[in-house]
Amino acid sequence: MSETSPPGVDHPERPEAPPEYPEYAERVLEVAELIPPGRVMTYGDVAEWLEEGGPRQVGRVMALYGGAVPWWRVVRADGRLLPGHELRALDHYRAEGTPLRAAGRAAEGHLPRLDMGRARWDGDGGGRAQGHT
Fold first, then answer.
1. What are phi and psi of 109, to 5 degrees?
2. Do residues 114 and 96 lie in contact, with contact meaning Cβ atoms separated by under 8 Å?
3. Which residues lie across from 40 on neighbouring strands?
4. Exposed, middle or buried by CB within 10 Å (0-12, 13-18, 19+), for 24?
């Protein structure tokens, strides 16, 4: 490959260094990795767990850096699937057995929603991030 290849292209002679994330982003991503398969946390749940930031800050971190973790497990509080990523997320939910609610006829795209009452994880049964009581 030439020296003018776009960033992100593998160069055997020049391995890419692992990405460096801002400290808050690292903490958000660590929480996302703690969520068990088949369970979800809302953006607000993650912020509350960390006792820092809010849903928008967590959403921003997930939008910028979430591809490195199970991003489909950090969700909107209303259970709607992430716009633009609905089908990919749905594949993950079905593979993991995440509880879903059937879509009504009026539902946009006839896509199911997450059953938040059954799918939401409060952190019990797993390691806790520092600072969460």
1. 70, 5
2. no
3. 120
4. middle
Taking the C-alpha atoms of residue 21 and residue 29, their distance in angstroms, rounded to an integer, is 10
Task: Report yes or no: 54 and 44 within 8 Å, Cβ to Cβ.
Answer: yes
Q: Say which residues have a Cβ less than 8 Å from residue 11's Cβ, sequence separation at least 6.
A: 1, 5
Residue 52 corresponds to which tokens in the numbers above?
A: 């820092």
Report the predicted TM-score, pTM, of the whole model to 2 decimal places: 0.76
Q: What string of DSSP letters covers 26-84? A: HHHHHHHHHSPTT-BEEHHHHHHHHTSS-HHHHHHHHHHHGGGS-GGGEE-TT-PPPTT
Between 92 and 127, the higher pLDDT residue: 92
Neighbours of 44 (CB within 10 A): 16
Q: Per residue in 65-104, pLDDT tens?
A: 999 999 999 999 999 999 899 999 999 999 999 999 987 6
Rounded to an integer, what distance in angstroms lies between the CA atom of residue 103 and that of residue 131? 38
Find the helix or strand (DSSP H, E) in which 119 lies.
Answer: helix 116-119
Q: DSSP assignment, residue 67? A: G
Categorise residue 110: left if φ over 0, alpha if ψ from -120 to 50, beta otherwise.
left
Token look-up 């199911």 returns 112
